[in-house]
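Sat 14:20. Reprocessing the chain from the morning session after the first attempt stalled halfway. Input below, unchanged.
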Amino acid sequence: MVSESYQQAGIPINWHAALLRAVRKPLVAEGLTNREFEGDLENGNTVRIVMTSDVAIANYNRNTPITATILPLADQTLLADQQKSFNFQTNDLDVKQVKPAFVEEQSSRAVYNLKRVQDAFIFQTMYDGVAAANYEGAYTVSPVDADAFELASYAARILDDNDTPEDMGVPGMDSEGGPNGGFRFLVVPPLYAEQLVNDPRRSSFGTTDNLRTYGERYIGRSVAGLEIFKSTNLPSGSDTTAGAGYTAVIAGWTKAAAFASQIVKFETQRVQGNFADFHMGMSVYGAKVVYPPNLVTFDVRAA
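Finished this time. Tokens:
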């Protein structure tokens, strides 16, 4: 019975015909990784990635024997060790009498949440796997000065110093709105994106591209050839000094980290002893930083 304080007698209660759809934040991490090793996971959960070293260049002296360089072989391990799943139950009466789209919406939400957890895992893997020399510390960004712009330029310079390839062209966007293609990138939290968008070197020219940055999460090739994306899935910064609250910023090359998904499965089973279904999903995946010098990280917080 509905309490009188909430419902007066004779006043009908109306139920809207459609389900309230979930609010979803952007997912970009998977599009910033190398997927070429994924096929090697078909018969196991581990991929051995073979590496070698550079060939030495020496002076050549006529009629003098040349000493050969012995190239050592080493390997890195990409392990699909992340196992995530969901399982929810729906009663036949709920599906038939309440909302016919109930199962589709709940399934869509569950799959999205799997990918959201995966998105955060990839960014954490990048942050943890960067070369120690490429962690540039913690900073406070302020709208008064040019901190955000200068830090992005500095990250690009570090990528240059480490011979990071610079693929040309603007990345495409996949069917889910994430980035697609090889390029240098910078992933920033919303507080940092605001500072970049408002920097006069980005916003004072009045072009269509300038105006786009206010409405889309793809901010564009804003600073020093970096394709800049906004994400709320970046890890917390490692700085633990007084007044912490830092968020990571990650710059790099899309081949610096590898990602591989071993299995993505969704199925429905009847519940024994009830008129209901189980709806289950599973995802198994892993990530590895294979070129640590080609990533740069630092921590930021708002002034």
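The two ends are 52 Å apart (CA to CA).
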